[in-house]
Amino acid sequence: MDLDRDMDTGTRPAGFGRRREPRTGTSNLLVFLGLLPLDILVGGGAWLAVGMRGWAAAHNGEDAVLPMTELLWSGGMLAAIGLALCWGRFWAAAVAQFGLTVVVLAVLSSSSG
Question: Which UniProt keywords are given for this protein, alphabetically ordered (predicted)?
């Protein structure tokens, strides 16, 4: 049989066992810069939610409470973008995306006190 011959010789049909090569540095940079406006929009929405909650608490004489729902949604969206970049083999852009997510969430969670 042909299948036995393929297994004996160690050859594989075209397309099987091919390694997925990463994208070039230039394409990673372009993809990350292209997604930066979306990152700014998502991070800015979370920043606005934290600021509005803190402003309202300060004017009502209450303690500021961190809006966890908004932070989780924004962090989840930024992480989902990073996972999509990993799936598309833009690994350097994905690392930058995950780094950006960590920085944004750290800054926003520390600004509430």
Answer: Membrane, Transmembrane, Transmembrane helix
